[in-house]
Amino acid sequence: MTSLSAYLSHMLRAEWIRSFFLVKTKPLTKPAYFMDYPIDTGKRCTHCFSCMMICPVPDAISVLMVGETEGEDIWKPVLYQGHCIRCGLCVEICPERVLASGDIIERVRQDSTYMQSTFHILVNEGKCAGCGTCSIACPVNKEIDPILASKGTTTSDEVIMRVKAGVMRVLHEEKCTGCKTCVLHCSYQAMDVARVIECLQYESDDETSATNEGG
Ligand code: SF4
Ligand code: SF4
Ligand code: SF4
Description:
This protein is of the alpha+beta class and 215 residues long. The protein has 2 domains: 39-111, 2-Layer Sandwich (Alpha-Beta Plaits); 119-197, Alpha-Beta Plaits. The protein is built from 10 helices and 8 strands. The strands form 4 sheets. It has a two-stranded antiparallel ribbon with strand order 1-4. Strand 2 and strand 3 form a beta hairpin. The longest helix has 10 residues, at 2-11. It starts with a helix and ends with a helix. Bound molecules: iron/sulfur cluster (SF4) (3 copies).
């Protein structure tokens, strides 16, 4: 009985009742380092498609799609959250800072890092028939050598790849834009183009420009 009255007298204190009914918890706030779904900052998208190409989700097109508003020449990345794994890679690679999530951009700026992507052309020699269809289909090759565009043959060593002595040779991988037209045109499934992503640090001399670029 004594313990019950002690309990009641403790619970019925005005201070306790006031704090019970008027208690306020702090509103939930996300920490800056929380990697959320990417959001559109509204900056101008130059439709370089880097964000789509770096997205590691299989069938990335189902996650992130850069499209044009009909007739307005305004491009925008549209995100479908259901498949996004919130890795933040698209935020980090976008050169125009169109996408944002937490403090990724700020951290990239502080660390003076940037991402660079190149393409690696793989020709499976066991499958390649040396027909040269990939070389003729390549839009970059056609620009480099107008004869290739008109006659379907080239002797230029400035093109990305061409058949030499009956064998497909990759001569200038660094000129590849990763469009995969060659892959689509090869009847022998002998070709593949892989994107190689590197995270690099600006040299100290470049740091000022990196900070300026970050805006
Ligand atoms: S955060 Fe990652 S998974 Fe999500 S859209 Fe960007 S690159 Fe793809
Ligand atoms: S959002 Fe950025 S990375 Fe994606 S297409 Fe636009 S400019 Fe390129
Ligand atoms: S991916 Fe495109 S640019 Fe690169 S070699 Fe193939 S067709 Fe040419």
